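Appendix B, example 12.
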Amino acid sequence: MAFTASDYKKGQPRWCPGCGDHFFLASLHKAMAEIGVEPWNTAVISGIGCSSRLPHYMATYGMNTIHGRAAAIATGAKVANPALTVWQISGDGDGLAIGGNHFIHANRRNINLNMILLNNRIYGLTKGQYSPTSPRGFVSKSSPYGTVEDPFRPAELCFGARGHFFARTVATDGAHTVEVLKAANAHKGASVVEVLQNCVIFNDGCHSAVYNKAGRAENAIYVEHGQPLIFGKDREYGLVQEGFGLKVVKIGENGITEKDILVHDAHCEDNTLQLKLALMGNGDGFPVALGVIRDVEAPTYDDAVTAQIEEVKAAKKYHNFAELLETNDIWEVK
């Protein structure tokens, strides 16, 4: 049965005009249609925040849960019904502050969830407090003199929790976002997709370097497994390994050719180079990496739980309530 994006749409979004949530929602509808999982076999689960209103606009099963608990509820849904396709939607505050503990353990357990982190580096719904991804020195309503904290970097947190899939995209890059979401769904296990987006009211321009096509041509690199790490408006730059780090080189200078450029390996179990790619682009002279950065197979929690239940059931002398009663002494009353 073929589906269209409209089969997954419901309601009228109540977000500020220009909010990155609008762009992402449209991409999610398109991705779901292309993936083809029926709406009635799909669940979208969120916590609290502007982004967490998203289940209200999905013609699927959905839950708008409590603050920071989206991963916990999503885990329960997936384990209870392994056939269900589960999408978890969180903002950087909901997912990495009060929900940070659930985020790392969902990755550690490798539960088969599509975990979407909509990162605008601010608390938008509660009117502009700094979040766990706000940069040091960021001035906000809750840090009027600038934060004195270093931020979480979502990729670093995911990798540190032994995550097996991490990708990044920009909300305004619709076609790329659709492809990344499809890759996340195809991965069996916990997939984390960081979506860079602006809050037009409280943190507008926070991702301005890559928020439009021209900016991405100058300041981003699209990574693809098996392809050389080349970037630039005219694809004139590339990444090479230098010692334990990476270095930007210009192709054609100093004898550098395309053969010298590193080839991206998203499937490598050792995440050293993947993490270096994921952490680029914070004013360090490197481009922001977009695309599937890590995609490694590993056993999943929900499969392991299901297999364990079947193993225990097979070893039991009873398999239903009637058989359970018969394992005890029985008296016949005449």
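The longest helix spans residues 20-35. The radius of gyration is 23 Å.
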